[in-house]
Amino acid sequence: MGKDFSKTQIDKLGDRLKKGNITEADLRLLDEYRRSFTGAYETVVGIIRNEVTLEPTGRPAKSTTSISEKLLRETIRLTQVQDIAGCRLIVADLIEQERVVQRLNQLFENVTIVDRREQPSHGYRAVHVVVKAAGRLVEIQVRTAMQQLWAEQSEKLSDIVDPAIKYGGGDVKIQQFLKEASGIVADLESIELEIAGDEELRSDKKRKSEVSSLRKRMVKVLQSAYPTNKRST
Amino acid sequence: MIFLIEYDRSSGQLVRIESFPEPERQDAESARLELELELNRLGRDHEVVVLEAASEAALRRTHRRYFENLSELMAS
Q1: Residues from chain A contacting residue B39 (CB–CB below 8 Å)
Q2: Contact (CB, 8 A) for A109 and A161
Q3: Quick one: DSSP state of residue A79?
């Protein structure tokens, strides 16, 4: 695994993170483990910058909070977590998203593409491309601007209302609003895809009005998800 | 640029942001560890994360939840 730690040692650390009561020694070992992804992370980000000519926002290492929550939520061990290191690309629309995903698929070996557009995860729509570099996995999140808007709302609501919201739990009404908004984003992106490259369709007044009303509806639905007893406005 | 962020999830508030030039990634990671150790000693449950972006403006576009409240998120 690494020069200073074994797989068993890291998985035992994961068990302790799940239980809480993290010691200073645990934080130091986790830090060392996360730093072992730096080489892989730098390789992946460098390739994206040079070959895809996009500037990702990188997260060289997942936060302790996020790792602990993931281990509690899922049945995986710490050494199986695929997004210890990662980065995010925000692109304009579905066409650009598809182009970037295909390019990443060409550029890296051992690629796993997790497409959450057709089958959203609790409303979350995006494409995650997991690649291997320097013996480590790195997750590249590719989101369209609208998928990003939805995700940021969902994450913020999870922060201030209930962490379960992001994963389909928590307040039922908030879940319904988020799922409805996610559906509207999918409809909007579908229309954009349909009219892309078709000047006649793009200038069609009916289509324009449809897109405009869907956008307004999405904003309204997301605003409806605002909790009345929120701790932060 | 490398950014060290301390974020209080329960209030949705950014507590601190510190920037480092890209060659100082190791320093940013060391600062992250020191901050995590300090928060752990204080029993404070804040998220600490190191992010990298071309600029703070770029970071604010891709990780808006650290910087904006719900109303601001919808204002774009």
Answers
A1: none
A2: no
A3: G
Instruction: For the full predicted model, state whether its pTM sits above 0.80.
Output: yes
Q: Do A58 and B53 touch (CB under 8 A)?
A: yes
Question: How many Å apart are CA A186 and CA A94, to the nearest integer?
Answer: 10
Domain A7-144 has CATH 3.20.20.140: no
Beta-carbon contacts below 8 Å between A and B? 106
For chain A, percent of residues with pLDDT exceeding 90 = 75
- Measure the CA–CA gap between B75 and B66, rounded to whole angstroms: 16
User: Please, which residues 8-27 of chain A have a Cβ atom closer than 8 Å to chain B?
Assistant: 22, 24, 27
Output the DSSP codes for B10-49. Answer: TTTEEEEEEEE-GGGHHHHHHHHHHHHHHHHHHT---EEE
Enter the ipTM.
Answer: 0.93
Q: Where are the domains of chain A?
A: 7-144, 147-223
